[in-house]
Input
Amino acid sequence: MIAFLLAQTVAITGGTVYPVSGPKIENATVLIRDGRIAAVGTNVAIPQGATRVDASGKWVTPGLIDGAGQMGLREISAVNNTNEGTLQGNDVAAAFNVLEGINPASTLIPVNRIEGITTTLAVPGGGLIWGQAALIDLDGATIEAMRVRSPAAMVADLSQGSKSAGGGSRAGAAQRLRRVLNDAREYAQRRNDYRRAQMQELGASAADLEALQPVLRGELSIIIVANRRSDIETALRIAREYNLRLILAGAAEGWMIASEIAAARVPVLVRPLDNIPSYDALGVRYENAALLSRGGVKIALLETETENTRNLRQQAGNAVATGMTWDQALRAVTLTPAEVFGVADRYGSLEAGKVANVVVWSGDPFEFSTGVEHVFIRGRDIPLRSRQTELLERYKTLPPKY
Amino acid sequence: MPAPAATSASQDTVGGIGPQYPSTYQRHPNPPVIIRNATIMTATGQEIQGGSIVLRDGRIVSVGTSVDAPADAVVVDGTGKWVTPGVIDTHSHLGVYAAPSTFAESDGNEATTPVTAEVWAEHAFWPQDPQIPLAIAGGVTTIQALPGSANLIGGRSAVLKLVPARSVQEMKFPGARYGLKMACGENPKRVYGQRGGPSTRMGNMAGYRSAFINAQGYRRRWDKWNKDHSGDQPDRNLRNETLADVLRGNIYVQNHCYRADEMVQMLDLAREFGFKIRSFHHAVEAYKIADVLAREGAAVSIWADWWGFKEEAMDGIYENAALVQQAGARPAIHSDSESGIQRLNQEAAKAMFHGRRAGIPITRDQALRWFTANAAWVLGIDSVVGTLEPGKMADVVLWSTDPLSVYARAVQVYNDGWLVYDRNDPTRQPKTDFNLGREP
Output
């Protein structure tokens, strides 16, 4: 191993630090050692030889975590051969884990991380059960190097999108989901019968039923996409029936039943700017994230346009503009998603021992006037370069520099 | 003051055919208004602190730090707030791709043959599209509603006042010209590649050229007949009628085109047939030919940051608008989106600040002009709207804070002097028929 990489120590000094786990600290130091946060505070001894980053007048936050996209799974959405996120022809793809479809060399990764996004949930697409999502850091030459947690959640759909998997009916989709869960339970008790072909035909393959066991045991969360109020209530009902650890996604009409969602202690992944009415959710509104948050629901924010995951900042700013508190919005793109995806012991806040995903901003991270000064992912000071910055350099003055 | 007179080339009268589907737009009455003590961004280079603006009978009467308020004016306290011209979107599919976006509302692409210059967006425009009030709440006062980009030549656009209405005629911007939607690149290839072509960019170019060659003969016959009325009146042909008016310079070409090399091809095509391209749309690679665009006088209608969703959009960069501005060409920030149209101020802010960080000294006034005055120029209505100057149409937005902040929201929107939206007054938040009985 190369010794200096292992021994890398960085002190970010003088900034206003937003640990998220606690109140902001003026003129504080964040000490990074060997990819982890070693200390945070106003009284941090800076070891000799540490690289110093002067953050005076700057804001320091945890790296932002996007609650769902297809980073690494989708290079150009309109070019079929560059998409890896959907297992075609299987509406119940519980065994499909996206991880090995992720391309660590995707051009989308540098474009988005240099705007302060350090971690994203890579989510499959599909029919009724989409498969397993993986949480990844946006740095690393290999999938292993990027992996934060895989699987981080099972993903299923009870919105309009799943109707065809339900025979053309929402009720059919809900019933099919129950049938698959029932079959998964029974399969787990009768594996030998299954192998001897002494079971009735089951609603999914053995691999898919096997993959649902951690979900049924409550060890793996299940994200269910639902937008219409009645679909959200169906998801809550099914989660109660099977004792699932539910995460709602979309939840466009969630604001109507914020107290119900809060009482069920179910977190919600929400995209604040969604407000275009459809027959899936005529009650969609701009204030959804804010109303859910004020109603006591645990919220993590999404920017689902994968190539512009960087606009998570704008999503958060607009959530504030429509009534969420600024502190809640920052939490909704850092510590809350870390909690929701089961990695809050390592991610989401600036605390000693956590993975050193840290961003130094020139100001409020949600404001357009704010620039990114430094992005650390696992302690590495990421060069602020991407294919886009190279295009800018080439064409900044014309004729271009070839 | 009366509404500006329709010119000979306006949406009502192109083609020498006489008024067709004429605008029936009428200004809604509103008492005079004075907004006091606001920061007023005029889009003419000024940012007036503690400024006031007076609106009366649909016109801006005065703007400045000391203005005379009419005795009967409604006084609006602008303390801590900002005032800008109404937002103009040069590229919208509101009304033609209406929500709730089922097949029933999908009226934006006549994707039956690659050249459909004969279709008009206004003939499909649905004034009850529930996306319209959302855009109004974002400060939008004028849009260009365009056909989609499936076709090489998609049809006529319409310039519309964004106000509640029963028919599109009631929204047609008085005196504004039509646009012709043309599309380069991937979309026509994709739509027609397996359906008789074009299947290549070569085929795209041949398709435009053939269409305009047909229109040249048509124009000649009609121009001659209009002059001497000798012999039989030539037969009308809807497709050629529109293209002939492009050749005459009466209809603006609004050209969906992403790649730099294709834009250069289109400029040559325009030269071949003697028309001008008013604006390239999307133009994610405009920065690569910003000098050419400045020389040719073609504007660009672009996003702040869209990129990567298709191959021809891979080279989009944040600094596109700033680089085009720096080269002396004319950028406008457009939406092409029912969501983005609600926040064109935010998109312009993104483009401005990224430009500045790259060392391009974009002013706040320039960024404001990207979604006001420059957009008005793209639509040829810049003498009427797009800036806050006495005599101009009173299209005005009052913002909760600096409109280049993510936290700004439109508080009041005046369209032609009419308070069409007020965030603090539920009776001034228009709903379409579609919304009624459907919202909890």
